[in-house]
From TrEMBL:
Residue intervals of the HTH araC/xylS-type domain: 176-274
Name used for this protein in its record: HTH-type transcriptional activator RhaS
Taxonomic placement: Bacteria, Bacillati, Bacillota, Clostridia, Lachnospirales
GO molecular function terms listed in the Swiss-Prot or TrEMBL record: DNA-binding transcription factor activity; sequence-specific DNA binding
The species this protein was found in: Roseburia intestinalis L1-82
Superkingdom field: Bacteria
SMART domains: HTH_ARAC
UniProt KW keywords: DNA-binding, Transcription, Transcription regulation
Amino acid sequence: MFQDMSKDFDIKKIRRSNTISESNCEPHVHPFHEIFYLSSGECTSFIDHNIYKFGKGDLVIVPGGCLHKTVYTGKGIHERIVISFRQEITDWIKEQIGAEYLKNCMVPGVINIPEKRRNYVDSLLDKLMFENDTPDILSTAFIKAGLVELLLFIIRCKEYEDNVIKEIDVDNRKIQEVATYIFEHYTENILLEDVADKFDMNKSFLSKRFKTATGFGFKEYIINLRIQNACRLLLETNKSITDIAFECGFNDSNYFGDSFRKIKGISPRKYRKNETF
């Protein structure tokens, strides 16, 4: 599923229970960046090709264009604060400290905020929500300043703090290896039985475990990666739609078109004509 937003910045608080209907989100991708802070509960997120397990006090970075899905685990209520923003709002950081720092800041992953610094992060997020929910003539400036402060804090965590970058979910290490392999070879003819043999796993077990760990069916994940790459080629090159289909791993241009419409809700041709989709 492709998602977009109508403004340059948004922040909201989301509360969910762990019921089946509320505990999972659909796999999706969006052009804007997303940062979310888990204030209660436990989650597993599949971002690009990495599986992360995290809990209270963890901050998740999802750059624009990353395919991802979150599954809420554990008991009780899960509460997170979600910040969405476009790249343009971070131009000031590039001018002050350089584009490389900002690029490293927005690498997908999970940061465990040191406990002694959580009150600071909570206060900063509260200010952002206040300015977003009760805007006046100065709110846009306050929001930009607050977001810059949060991003600078993340950069400092990555540069100077020990053990703040959460490790990939060790309970799903084998599936992690499978997901990475698919991510690196999705343009090829990848079959479930071949991958199962490669990683010395039963085909049925791999299929079920992959779905549980990532939220994607085996074939569904491959198709989503191919469509994600096709979107990039449609916007960045003049290659024909048929050539793009084959380059991304589809052996039938009609199947490519059907798959693209199912995921993006629009044909490849219309997507190319309108970059806002």
